[in-house]
């Protein structure tokens, strides 16, 4: 795989760290679930949520119960939907809120790679194990893709490395391990962005298309391709008069731009359109009485919970008669009360507080970039910079505030504002943590700006002279950090946590505390997702 090619010492250390973090997450989940769940249930009883909990159609065996005891914490909340879809397909109307690529991938792995285990594990258990294995793989690959993307955009290997390490301890870590689609989406989205930065439009378009079949917010990634092509077109118009004569006519360039953008965006939207058409055929087309093929326990659940089945009693749901019968938007409004300002209620204050750290971090990142590059933001990055090609690492053309980061800041800000005003805000941490690199790039930027332990030789000598003990550690860590062969900066900062600056303590504290808090709350069915 091109993503893992080469002998980059940063990449090798990153993969080791990512594997260790994923193993630690699974181990902590098993410990919390198996040994301390009784204690947590006394202190924090299971939340009495009206969560989706379909009946088990096959009696579990000893190995199934053992696996459930070890990995059962990964199957809570939305994970139940994904596992149910992987096992039974799209049975209920609200199942269509979850896109098909991830559950079908889980089913494929369970049926192919884990087929030898069928004599000891029921299908449901194999699906759970398959989801854990897939997400472990995708989370490691997503970290590698984020590192490659950071190298291409930030043009600073050290910051890209640090940002990818922070991704491994993401506040949304529990959702990267559970049977959710976040890890797969992060891998596809970051990989697509990286290929686009390298000029590989077809590879990028294919990955973006797959990503839009994993999560609905993958549709907004079409903006990356549209911006990339528009920027190239705008910069071509600003070349000198000699080069202008060598370019194709303006109308031909404009036609090429429009056709390529329309074609690629249509490809990215295709999975969503096909999925909605499939839903329409299931629920709105005449003569699709599929309720007879559904197992009786699932029919009983539908009656008990008032879940709508496909063409049940030949009554079409109300969304079928809409001008644009899009089931996804109907489900979000009817089942989850998602909409503009619908979540702004007094009883949701705890959830807003839960999303406050990631909200502040995202707004701080946008403000930092805007104040550092006001003209670049005002011109949308479409103005040719004379010294663009003369800037090297360590100059304004590198790092978080470099010109290439603009489109990622806009993307992250749009997602943040949409999440705050139109979504359940408690999902904002995993929503942003799996969709945008900005949270990790900006956190790495703050650490490098404010943490002397990460400063290289000759940086802010007066500050380090006033902190003798810190200076020795800083020189040692920065030297190895420059070489990229021995020290892991995140591990070193944690080992010297007492000496860290307040900003470093806040960032690391936020990442690690939400990692642990997510494990505790998710394993105990508390409202965290």
UniProtKB/TrEMBL annotation:
What membrane topology does the annotation report for this chain?
Answer: Multi-pass membrane protein
Domain of life, per lineage: Eukaryota
Q: To which pathway does this protein belong?
A: Glycolipid biosynthesis; glycosylphosphatidylinositol-anchor biosynthesis
Which UniProt keywords are given for this protein, alphabetically ordered?
Answer: Endoplasmic reticulum, Glycosyltransferase, GPI-anchor biosynthesis, Membrane, Transferase, Transmembrane, Transmembrane helix
* GO biological process, alphabetically ordered: GPI anchor biosynthetic process
* Broad enzyme group: transferase
Localization, UniProt: Endoplasmic reticulum membrane
A Pfam family the protein falls into: Mannosyl_trans2
Return the GO cellular component terms, semicolon-separated: endoplasmic reticulum membrane; mannosyltransferase complex
What GO molecular functions are on record for this protein? Answer: alpha-1,6-mannosyltransferase activity; GPI mannosyltransferase activity
Q: What does this protein do?
A: Mannosyltransferase involved in glycosylphosphatidylinositol-anchor biosynthesis.
Q: What is the designated name of this protein?
A: GPI mannosyltransferase 2
The organism encoding this protein is: Nothocercus julius
